[in-house]
């Protein structure tokens, strides 16, 4: 049977769109600073200075100018893909509304930054963009004196005009950068840079495109004559033909309509009320592991209600998305204890981890076949309904990282589970951002709490295949049933080594 071919997680751009957006911004900023050093801020010198950079400094200037342009275009693609992905995955509901709503104004700032850059070249394309933009803004009732009057002929444009353009082309990107940091304020451990290999691949790709097809200017702008034809950058100027065809009023209506619709998406969606995490002070020991692992900065620490010299976790309700990762991080949930064996300091309100463990044990007691498998899934990975059998028990969690490693130890040591198969979102593309990453680190002794027993670790298999991975799960179960001993290596298995023997080994990828 053929295996699915996919990019490694650290090379798949769809898994790192947010980090790529930040990375491309810095490429644009660095190349823009270089161009600014040699740019002449005047009507007569602007076009000539850009040509000088492109032609006289061919190997450096042309490359920097082309990188500046193509990285800007790539940023539009990445941001658009990021918006589409978040929409399709419904990552705008509940507490995530803030990141969605704060991202909408960034679209305006991004396009304003790019369009302003084209003005500075002051070629025929810049002339068309400047005059059409002036016509667009003149349609607004707040504009007292028509902007287009200042772009009638060469005599009406002064060098102060270019000083204003430079100010805007620096100020708007700075506002964009500030907005980007506000955009990620409600998430912890935000990834504002892509993995190193992806960053190098992106830079190399942009460099190759820049060398093969360098950015060039059109003829210098001449306001004393009209522009007959112009090569548009469709990434930034896709709306300009609509201004020519429909007029300024309808285009403003279209742009504002799209903006309002995007802002209203969180309000118009009927999402179920999320079940938030709750803290049990009696069992909270103030370790702070839930605080460290929360992907949404929804947990903070305070002095304990009644235990001296101890801290206590507190859940911020309007930030909590109910992922359950905090419950999987709580070290007090230790089933091996003789008293309160499965109670923990933090749990999801609708179903505690103790209840989940009890349900798993009940299912296991109903099984009579040897070689019992526990299949753990998540609400955003492949649907594991239908895989339960006489030799397979299933449990679906909000996130696979909700399962404490101590449960795996206990179920394998005390309840006769031979193999645990953990499945969920694709590696590097967890719906809850870092659930897969955190659970992997726990299994590899890289993060607390972690697996305690080496013989248990050998029989834990990882299958991060995403929502379309039911076939891969079925194949894995078939392999386990065919192997001489469930959980040991079959022909296509690579079982996890004991944590002390090797770090970072995964059983299987999609």
Q: What is the structure about, briefly put?
A:
This protein has 510 residues and is of the alpha/beta class.
What order do the helices and strands come in, and which of them pair?
Blueprint: H1 17-38, H2 46-55, H3 58-88, H4 97-121, H5 124-138, H6 159-183, H7 196-212, H8 240-246, H9 248-268, E1 277-279, H10 289-293, E2 299-303, E3 311-315, H11 325-329, E4 346-348, H12 353-365, E5 373-378, E6 392-397, H13 405-414, E7 419-423, H14 435-443, H15 454-458, E8 460-464, H16 470-482, E9 508-509
Parallel strand pairs: 5-6, 5-7, 7-8, 8-9
Antiparallel strand pairs: 1-4, 2-3
Helix pairs in contact: 1-3, 2-3, 3-4, 3-7, 4-5, 4-6, 4-9, 5-9, 8-9
Which terms would index this structure?
alpha/beta, two-stranded antiparallel ribbon, single chain, Cytochrome Bc1 Complex, Chain C, elongated, 2 domains, about 500 residues
Task: Tell me the structural class.
Answer: alpha/beta
Query: CATH class of the largest domain, please?
Result: Mainly Alpha
Mean pLDDT: 88
Topology order in helix (H) and strand (E) letters? HHHHHHHHHEHEEHEHEEHEHHEHE
The CATH homologous superfamily of the largest domain corresponds to Cytochrome Bc1 Complex, Chain C
Helix count, DSSP H or I runs of 4 or more residues: 16
The strand count comes to 9
**Main pleated sheet:** 5 strands, parallel
Helix content: 40-55%
- What is the CATH architecture annotation of the largest domain? Up-down Bundle
Q: Please, how many domains?
A: 2
Biggest sheet strand order reads: 6-5-7-8-9
Uncertain segments: 484-510
Chain oligomer state: single chain
Rg (C-alpha, Å): 29 Å
């Amino acid at each position: 049977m053929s295996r699915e071919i996919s990019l490694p997680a650290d090379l798949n751009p769809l898994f790192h769109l947010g980090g790529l957006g930040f990375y491309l911004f810095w490429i644009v900023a660095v190349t823009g600073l270089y161009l600014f050093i040699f740019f002449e801020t005047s009507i007569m010198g602007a076009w000539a200075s850009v040509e000088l950079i492109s032609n006289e400094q061919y190997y450096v200037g042309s490359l920097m100018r082309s990188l500046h342009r193509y990285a800007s275009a790539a940023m539009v693609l990445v941001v658009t893909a990021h918006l589409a992905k978040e929409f399709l995955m419904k990552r705008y509901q509940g507490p995530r509304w803030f990141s969605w709503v704060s991202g909408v104004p960034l679209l305006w700032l991004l396009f304003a930054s790019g369009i302003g850059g084209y003005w500075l070249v002051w070629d025929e394309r810049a002339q068309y963009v400047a005059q059409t933009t002036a016509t667009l803004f003149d349609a607004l009732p707040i504009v007292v004196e028509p902007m287009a009057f200042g772009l009638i002929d060469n005599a009406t444009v002064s060098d102060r005009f270019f000083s204003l353009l430079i100010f805007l082309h620096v100020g708007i990107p700075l506002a964009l950068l500030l907005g980007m940091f506000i955009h990620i304020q409600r998430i912890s451990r935000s990834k504002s840079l892509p993995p190193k290999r992806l960053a190098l691949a992106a830079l190399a790709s942009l460099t190759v495109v820049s060398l093969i097809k360098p950015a060039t200017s059109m003829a210098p702008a001449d306001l004393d004559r009209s522009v007959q034809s112009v090569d548009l950058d469709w990434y930034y100027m896709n709306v300009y033909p609509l201004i020519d065809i429909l007029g300024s009023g309808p285009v403003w209506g279209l742009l504002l309509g799209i903006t309002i619709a995007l802002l209203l998406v969180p309000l118009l969606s009927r999402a179920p009320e999320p079940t938030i995490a709750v803290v049990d002070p009696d069992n909270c020991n103030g370790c702070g592991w839930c605080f460290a692992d929360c992907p949404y900065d929804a947990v903070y620490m305070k002095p304990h209600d009644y235990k001296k010299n101890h801290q206590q976790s507190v859940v911020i309700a309007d930030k909590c998305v109910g992922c359950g990762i905090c419950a999987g991080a709580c070290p007090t949930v230790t089933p091996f204890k003789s008293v309160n064996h499965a109670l923990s300091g933090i749990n999801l309100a609708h179903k505690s981890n103790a209840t989940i463990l009890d349900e798993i044990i009940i299912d296991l007691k109903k099984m009579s076949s040897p070689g019992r498998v526990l299949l753990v899934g998540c609400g955003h990975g492949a649907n594991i309904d239908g895989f339960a059998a006489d030799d397979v028990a299933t449990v679906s969690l909000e996130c696979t990282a909700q399962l404490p490693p101590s449960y795996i130890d206990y179920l394998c040591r005390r309840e006769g589970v031979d193999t645990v198969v953990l499945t969920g979102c694709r590696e590097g593309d967890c719906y809850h951002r870092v659930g897969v990453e955190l659970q992997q680190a726990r299994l590899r002794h890289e993060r607390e709490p972690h697996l305690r027993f080496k013989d248990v670790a050998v029989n834990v298999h990882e299958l991060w295949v995403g929502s379309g991975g039911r076939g891969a799960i079925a194949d894995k179960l078939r392999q386990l049933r065919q192997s001489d001993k469930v959980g040991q290596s079959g022909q296509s298995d690579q079982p996890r080594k004991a944590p002390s023997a090797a770090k970072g080994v995964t059983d299987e990828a999609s």
